[in-house]
Every structure is written in C-alpha cells, then in structure tokens.
Design brief:
Keywords: GTP-binding, Nucleotide-binding, Repeat, Ribosome biogenesis. GO terms for molecular function: GTP binding. Associates with the 50S ribosomal subunit. Belongs to the TRAFAC class TrmE-Era-EngA-EngB-Septin-like GTPase superfamily. EngA (Der) GTPase family. With 446 residues, the protein is of the alpha/beta class. The protein folds into three domains: 159 residues, 3-Layer(aba) Sandwich (Rossmann fold); 180 residues, P-loop containing nucleotide triphosphate hydrolases (Rossmann fold); 78 residues, K homology (KH) domain (GMP Synthetase, Chain A, domain 3). The protein has twelve helices and 17 strands. The strands form four sheets. It has a six-stranded mixed sheet with strand order 2-3-1-4-5-6, with helices on both faces. It is elongated.
Length: 446
C-alpha cells in the first residue's frame, strides 16, 4: 500500500492548487469561490522520490453535522484517519485565524504526523509572513506558493523525510490493473450515493441538495474479480442551463473522466424516467467509445414498475440505437438493494467491449451478411465489398475494404453494425465501422 498524504485546511487557502501542483495535472477544480472542493479527491503522485496517494479534501469549517459544510468536514476528518501524513495548509497572506488555531489544536490530538505548509508566500515579505505558522505547534513550516511553484522542492524533501519507511517493491501484474469506471448522470440521480454503496463507506457527500458533487472524484475498491478505479462525476444539466464558470469546469471534468474510463455507468432516477439529457450523456459516452451500463436508481420508490421499465426500454430502442441492447440494472443505492448486480453487469459489458473476433470468424460473418442483404447501388453501380478486418477492440472496430466502399449509405452501415453486434453478442457496446475504398490502378492513367 502506498503512503497516503492528506491536504487539510480552511476553505480557499489553496489546497486544490497545491494538489494539482504536486500531481502535475489540473485534476482538481480551482476557483476563488470558497468551498469549491466538497468531496475528497485522491490521486497517485511522486513526492520526494516516493510514490504516494495524495488526498485533496474539503475545507475545514465549524458547522452543524446536518449541513453541507458539516458533511464536508466529516469527509475531511475521515481522510485524516486514513492518512500517514497531513499537510496543514494556511494562507500566509491572510495570516493565522482563530479557525486555523482551533483546527491545529484538534490535529495535535490526532495520531498522525502533521507538516505546516504556509501557502501564498510569493513576493516581498512572503517568507516573513510564513513564520507566523510556527504558532501552530508543528515544528518548522514550509513556505510555498502553490500557484507559482515556489518552495515546492523544499516541500518534496521535507515530506520524503516524514513518510514511513518504504517497503520492498513488488512487481504489479498487468492483469491487476484496475477497471476504469465513470459514474455519470443528471444532478441528484444518486451517483454519489451509489459510489458510497459500492465502497462501503460514506466517501462522497450526499444529501437532497442537487449539485453537491462539483468535481470528478476518484476512488478505488475491489469487487469479486479485482481492482476497480471509479470516478464519481458532477451532474450534467442541459447546456442552456449551465451559466456559472464553476459548473462549466465541472462538466469539463466529467468529460475528461469519460475519456479516461472504460465503462460508464449512467445513473437514472427511476421516478423521472429517461429524458433527453440522459440520452445526451449516453451519446457522449458512446462518441468517446465507452461501454455503457444503466443503473436505474430509486427503483424501490416506483409504483408501476412494469410501465416504468417498458417506457425506458421503448426510449432506448428508438433513441439510443447505437447502443442497442444496453444492460439496465434496477436498484436502490440508498438501501443497497440490487447494487450487488451492478458490478457483474459492468464486468460482462467490459468483456464485450474488449472482445476481439478472429479474422476467419469475422469474414464468415461478413460473407453471410452480404449474402442476406446485398449492398445497394450507388450512382447506378453496385458497390463491391471485398473483406473485413478487426484491427482493434476497446471499442470493437471493423474495417471493410472494397471499391467505393466509402459510398455506402448510412442505412446499410447500420445494418452491418447491427448484424455484427447480434452475431458476436455485443449489446450496449459502441461499435466503430470504417470503410476503405481500394484504388483502381487504371484510373487517371494515360
């Protein structure tokens, strides 16, 4: 297990900026609005020559437990219990506050080593301002500017000296690489509740307020097959309703999470059914080449289940033909009922998405498809398709060769894709069809 480092501090002291600086990527959304980070985000990083898990947490605030701020604080406190080292970040420009001192007193009672990090020390007087952090009682503070990259090398070396001793290195089998899963959907569909149910802990902040999750938050767990790296994403509203820059960044983080995933779980609110925004999200996942499984959440609250299921299946058949046969798992994330069926469905869909068809089988299918339905005429001439290959999976990609193959009309392309899907049992998987015309050596020759 890699050592875990939690970044802790008041809202808006620069924790997410430091997180991005240390992982070397803009993974956490950064904005001047206090409280942008609500759920703890974790990512592998290399600090002081050591591989670590870095945790970005919500800002520590004094608040009642039943409020959003209170639930954010509880999540941050849970991260502290799992950490091997805490980076307690304070704003050197603003100076120490009563909250800083109160949280420092609480941290001193924990059984985890703490390093005080004085952020925003760029410019004149920055280093002097950092000296105030000695009052916190955690020894020598490290003065940095996360935004400008100043003092980061000192932070690396100090952190390396405070980490537990490095265990003997073990080689990781390629087969042990985690399945990459993205949880997507509209706001308040129950994505974070589902992630908590899968993890078996209150990792994500949940509640009746829509839009609680603002960033794409990564976690890991083990199912019956192996490791799963799961990303909970912000809810995606209709484009016309997205007005705030912060929400635009959240949607951008969701799209990036889809690009890095292998399978997308589209969470639907069974009480609301499948609407156009859900279909847009599914089409986005398909365009990115991701396999899709639908989690039909809040199923326990549906009264007429037969009508609800029929309505969803009819909509999928008419409006999401490119993912024909998509798997739908009815469940309740809040009660846990049916959640155990989700990961087996995800694993099965992943196998289809990763499936390669041998060339011999592929061309036997291809010849059969052509004999059942010949290609139509184009400009009065028949299109002759010669052979097919499958150069890659993830998603399954078929390349068909023949003179003027690129002139095939759209309906015949759909016929080939659906025929391939049925022949090789690939429901719910995007299939790419590429057409390559073969050149005639006698054209344009004198």
């Amino acid at each position: 297990m890699l050592p875990r480092i939690a970044i802790i501090g008041r809202p808006n002291v620069g924790k997410s900026t430091l997180f991005n600086r240390l992982v070397g990527r803009k993974l956490a959304i950064v904005d001047n609005t206090p409280g942008v980070t609500r759920d703890r985000k974790e990512y592998e990083a290399r600090i002081g020559g050591r591989d670590v898990i870095l945790l970005d947490t919500a800002g520590l605030e004094e608040a009642p437990p039943d409020t959003v701020a209170g639930r954010m604080r509880a999540s941050s406190e849970a991260a502290i219990q799992q950490a091997d080292l805490i980076l307690f970040v304070v704003d050197a420009k603003a100076g120490l506050t009563a909250s800083d001192r109160a949280f420092a007193a609480w941290l001193r009672r924990q059984k985890v080593p703490v390093l005080a990090v004085a952020n925003k020390t760029e410019g004149r007087g920055g280093t002097m301002a950092a000296l105030e952090a000695y009052e916190l009682g955690f020894g020598d503070p490290v003065a940095i500017s996360a935004e400008h990259g100043e003092g980061i090398s000192d932070l690396h070396s100090t952190v390396a000296g405070m980490l537990p001793e490095e265990p003997e290195e073990e080689e990781e089998d390629d087969k042990d690489r985690p399945l990459r899963l993205a949880v997507v959907g509209r706001p308040n569909a129950g994505k974070s509740t589902l992630l908590n149910a899968l993890l078996g802990e209150e990792r994500m902040i949940t509640g009746p307020e829509p839009g609680l999750t603002r960033d794409a938050v990564t976690s890991e767990f083990n199912d019956a097959v192996g490791r799963v790296r799961i990303v909970d994403t912000a809810g995606m509203r209709k484009k016309a309703r997205i007005v705030e820059g912060l929400e635009q960044m959240s949607v951008g983080a969701t799209i990036n999470a889809l690009k890095e995933a292998e399978v997308a779980v589209l969470v639907l609110d069974a009480l609301l059914g499948l609407d156009e925004q859900d279909l847009r999200i599914a089409r986005l996942a398909e365009r990115e080449g991701r396999a899709v499984v639908i989690a039909l959440n809040k199923w326990d609250a549906v009264e007429d289940r037969i009508a609800a299921r029929r309505g969803i299946e009819d909509t999928l058949q008419t409006s999401l033909a490119q993912l024909k046969g998509i798997t739908v798992v009815a469940m309740s994330a809040a009660t846990g009922r049916g959640v155990d069926k989700l990961m087996p469905a995800v694993r099965e869909t992943m196998e289809r998405w990763n499936k390669r068809v041998p060339t011999g089988e592929l061309n036997r299918w291809f010849e059969g498809a052509l004999s059942r339905h010949q290609p139509p005429l184009a400009d009065g001439r028949r299109i002759k398709l010669r052979y097919a290959t499958m150069p890659k999976a993830r998603p399954p990609t078929i390349v068909i060769f023949g003179p003027r193959a690129e002139d095939l009309p759209e309906d015949y392309r759909r016929y080939l894709v659906n025929s391939f899907r049925d022949a090789f049992d690939m429901p719910g998987v995007p299939i790419r069809l590429q057409l390559r015309g073969t050149s005639n050596p006698f054209v344009d020759k004198e």
